[in-house]
């Protein structure tokens, strides 16, 4: 899952991003509305966590811009106002969900995950393929009943591969979905992560390399 956090309170923005990354999400962060529109034009995000009161460009205008693009990106709008009319107005602009500040981080995580499910074709809550089961909500992976401990990026890569349902996923696609915009496109981090993931999943190997194309399960 790839998420954009747009929040002008930098400490809050960075704290939210850190928490989401610990949930195996790829997260980009910007601190004003103008930068947000630039990012959504360049990248495909599953969810945008969007503060309403932003400098340079108001959050309402950012939300309208996202909606006008016609992408599957979902918007979770944040606001310091708990007024009902404020929430209704935000939803009418095109936001998919609304969360007043202050909020419990566990609720933010749950809402982001729920919106992500709406941004993609429906899949079972627990993914199963080739003897592997992956539970995104509990962040649990098992192979033939054996629990496997994975680092966040390993979990994210496995999640992308399993959601592809047997289709080939390129290294570029994995880099886009499992890492953030600061990842070096020329790095070998995808190859190294897949190699480590293969080792942890054990024999017989389930991740196949398709020469010149990418990987699949």
Order of helices and strands: EHEHEHEHEHEEEEHHHEE
What is the top-level CATH class of the largest domain? Alpha Beta
- Integer-rounded radius of gyration: 18 Å
Overall tally of domains? 2
Domain OmpR/PhoB-type: 124-217
Protein name: DNA-binding response regulator
Modified residues (4-aspartylphosphate): 51
Pfam families: Response_reg (PF00072), Trans_reg_C (PF00486)
Describe the structure.
With 217 residues, the chain is an alpha/beta fold. The protein folds into two domains: 2-119, Response regulator (Rossmann fold, 3-Layer(aba) Sandwich); 127-216, Winged helix-like DNA-binding domain superfamily/Winged helix DNA-binding domain (Arc Repressor Mutant, subunit A, Orthogonal Bundle), CATH 1.10.10.10. 42% of the residues lie in helices and 21% in strands. It has eight helices and eleven strands. The protein has helices spanning 10-21, 33-42, 59-69, 84-93, 105-119, 152-163, 171-178, 189-201; strands at residues 2-6, 26-30, 47-51, 74-79, 97-100, 127-129, 132-135, 140-143, 146-148, 208-210, 214-216. The strands form three sheets. A five-stranded parallel sheet has the order 2-1-3-4-5, with helices on both faces. A hairpin with a 2-residue loop joins strand 6 and strand 7 (132-135). Helix 2 packs parallel to helix 3 (59-69) and helix 6 (152-163) crosses helix 8. The longest helix is centred in the middle third of the chain and has 15 residues, at 105-119.
């Amino acid at each position: 899952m790839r998420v954009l956090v747009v929040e002008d309170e930098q400490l809050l923005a960075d704290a939210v991003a850190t928490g989401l990354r610990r949930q195996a999400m790829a997260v980009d962060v910007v601190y004003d509305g103008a930068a947000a529109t630039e990012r959504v034009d360049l990248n495909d995000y599953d969810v945008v966590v969007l503060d309403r009161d932003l400098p340079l460009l108001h959050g309402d205008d950012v939300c309208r811009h996202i909606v006008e693009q016609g992408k599957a990106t979902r918007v979770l709008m944040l606001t310091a106002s708990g007024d009902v009319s404020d929430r209704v107005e935000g939803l009418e602009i095109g936001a998919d969900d609304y969360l007043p500040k202050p909020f419990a981080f566990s609720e933010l995580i749950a809402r982001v995950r729920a919106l992500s499910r709406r941004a993609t074709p429906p899949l079972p809550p627990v993914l199963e393929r080739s003897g592997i089961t992956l539970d995104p909500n509990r962040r649990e992976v098992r192979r033939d009943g054996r629990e496997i401990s994975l680092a966040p990026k390993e979990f994210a890569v496995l999640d992308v591969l399993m959601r592809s349902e047997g289709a080939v996923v390129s290294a570029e696609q994995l880099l886009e979905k499992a890492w953030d915009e600061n990842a070096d496109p020329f790095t070998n981090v995808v190859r190294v992560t897949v190699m480590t993931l293969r080792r942890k999943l054990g024999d017989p190997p389930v991740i196949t390399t398709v020469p010149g194309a990418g990987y699949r399960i």
